[in-house]
Amino acid sequence: MGLISNLLGNATEVDLRKINEEFMPILYPGEELEAAYRIFRKKWIFTSTRLIIEDIQGMTGKKREYHSIPYKAITHFLIETAGNFDTDCEMKIWISGTSEPFCQEFSKGIDIKGIQQRLAHHVLTGK
Fold first, then answer.
1. How many Å apart are CA 44 and CA 51, to the nearest integer?
2. What is the structure's pLDDT at 25?
3. How many C-beta atoms lie closer than 10 Å to residue 3's C-beta?
4. Which of 9, 80, 89, 118 is deepest in the core (most CB within 10 A)?
């Protein structure tokens, strides 16, 4: 199901132990990984202070773009849960200074409400 979900553009959860070493060089001292999701050639990484969106580029996948969004820059967000006929969930995040949100679909098995709760905690408390 993970491969099919990725091919359809839906996110699947990633084991933090597997990506800890990969992301350690871009984390500052004391910053901790909290959750990670893979979407084909992208990863959404939730840390203790920011959301990192990794975009793997190029034919070989060696070129990578890291988009860092501090939680304090997020102005609002929404989630759409899965329904009977629509089997995926969606999250949109608006960032100050931009008019278009970051959008991502998540597979039905993902705890989208838990993701929203984590994001709400960081955005609303500033922690």
1. 7
2. 93
3. 9
4. 89
Per-residue buried b or exposed e for 21-43, using 16+ beta carbons within 10 Å of the residue's own CB = eebeeebeeeeebebbbbbeebb
- Which regions in the chain score pLDDT beneath 70? 1-11, 86
Residue with tokens 């839906």: 10
The count of domains in the chain is 1
- Strand, helix or coil at 8? coil
Do residues 74 and 119 make contact, with C-beta atoms less than 8 angstroms apart?
yes
d(C-alpha 37, C-alpha 16), whole Å: 9
- pLDDT of 11: 65
- Contact (CB, 8 A) for 55 and 33: no
Whether residue 26 contacts residue 15, with contact meaning beta carbons closer than 8 Å, is answered with no
- CB burial of 74-101 (b: ≥16 within 10 Å; e: otherwise) equals beebebeebeeeeebbbbebbbeeeeeb
Which CATH number do you get for residue 58?
A: 2.30.29.50
Identity of the residue numbered 3: L
